[in-house]
What does this fold into?
Amino acid sequence: MTRTFTSFAALLLSVSFIMGCGGQRLPDGMPRLYPASIEVTQEGTPLEGATVTLVSDDLELARWGPTGVTDASGIAILQTDGAYKGVPLGTYKVVVSKRAMEPHPNPELAGADRGTPEEAQYDRLDKARKVLSYVESQFGSMEDTPLAIEVVAGQKTYSVDAGKKVQTAAALANQ
It folds into this structure.
């Protein structure tokens, strides 16, 4: 009985090592992943709803693109390639962005009857709204971000501060 249990335990340990972080099967060529989360603050306050992307200069790591979105406490659980929990070991630049449509200037017109002047006014105002950025532009740029972390075995949490609080019209690629 003890021999059977020992063999079974060894098999489970081998399978969990092969599967990587969290028992997930990784795509061919993907390095081993390590659990990682990152806390993003602005002026010491948690930044909710920010997209965090880790960018590596190492071409082997750069292709996998670890990302996450911060929750109300400013913490993003990082995933690699959009689906695999964890991050490969390495040094990364941290890119932080948060964009949203500016609030509608006349929300009480929402739900106006179809075809009415009120609906047309709501639509006109809606189309004129701007996309706002809530993070200084340097933090949203792979080239300019001063933020960096080194993901190491045994460390699961990292912290960065994305500068001062801002609200500016976002620069869009198609403008």
About this structure: The helical segments are 2-19, 59-62, 117-128. The first helix runs from residue 2 to 19.
